[in-house]
Amino acid sequence: MPQDERIKKLASLLHNAEKITVLTGAGISAESGIPTFRGAEGLWRRHRAEQLATPAAFEKDPRLVWEWYDWRRGIIGSKQPNPGHRVLAGWEKRRPSFCIITQNIDGFHRRAGSENVFELHGNIWKVRCTNEGTVFDNNDTPIGTIPPLCPDCGALLRPHVVWFGESLDMGILNNAFRLSGECDLMFIIGTSAVVQPAASLPLAAREAGSILVEINPDTTPLSPTVDYSFREPSGEILPRIDKALKDLE
Ligand code: BV8
Description:
By secondary structure, the chain is of the alpha/beta class. It has nine helices and eleven strands. The radius of gyration is 19 Å and the shape is elongated. The structure holds ligand BV8.
C-alpha cells in the first residue's frame, strides 16, 4: 500500500480509536540531538550505557557514573523537544483517552506539553538520597559537586532512575500493562525493544487485540508482530500523520 494511503488509513484509525497508548524509547529524542543508547553515539568515554547504568557501577565509582549523568543532563538541558514530541502532546488534547509510557528519562514529553505520561525508568532531573530514599528535583547543570550529597543527611545522592538489574516501580509498571491491555491502538516509537519488561508491553497490547504501529528507521524484534511500520524518523512521520488526522477532524 503506498505511503500516503497507509498514512490516511492510520489517521482514520486514530480518529476512531477510543483508547490510544504510546510506548516511546530513546529514538523519539534522537532528532532533538540526544544520543540513543545503542546507536553509534551511545558510547561515552569508551563505556557503554549498560555498563554505567547499574548499581554495581555506582557502588564501584559513583564519581564516574555521576560524570556520565551530568554530561547527559548538560546535553538534555541544552536541547528542545522535537516535532514528534509535540504531535503526541497535541493528540493527548484531541483524543478521548491517550497516554504515553516512556522508557526515556529526559522529561521531553512533559516539556512538549504531554501530561498523561508514565516514566518507566525514572527521570534524570530527579535525585534520590541513598540513605533516606528522599527524592529531590534537581535541574542544576552542571550539578556542582560530584558526587552530590544529600542536603539533609550528607549521604550520597543517586540519579532517581531505574538501573539494569533494578526493579521498576510496581505501581507504574502495573499501570503500564493495564493501559497496554486496554488500548485499541498502540504506537511503539523509537525503541529497539530489547529492554525488559518495557518490551513486553506491546505484546500485552497485541494479546488484547490492539492494532500496533511501529515508528522506527530500523527493524526491531517487535517488527514482525506489528500491523503498520513506518521506517522513518518519528519527527518526520508523526507530523504527516497528524496532518492527515486534522483533515478528518
Ligand atoms: C528488571 C534508565 C527485574 C537509566 C534504563 C527479562 C525480564 C526482566 C528483566 C530482564 C529480562 N531480560 C533481561 C533483563 C534484564 C534487563 C534487560 O532488559 N536487559 C536487556 C539489555 C537485555 N532489564 C532490567 O534490568 C530491568 N529491571 O527487569 O528488573 C527485577 C525484578 C525484581 C527484582 C530485581 C530486578 C530494568 C531496565 C531499565 C534499565 N534502565 N534506563 C538511564 O537511562 O540511564 S533502560 C535504557 O534503555 C533507557 O531507558 C532506554 O530508553 C532503554 C531502551 O533503549 P531504547 O529506548 O530502545 O533505546 P535504544 O538506543 O536501544 O534504541 C533506540 C531506537 O530508536 C533504535 O531502534 C533506533 O533505530 C531508533 N531510532 C533512532 N532514531 C530514531 C529512531 N526511532 C524513531 N525516530 C528516530 N529519529
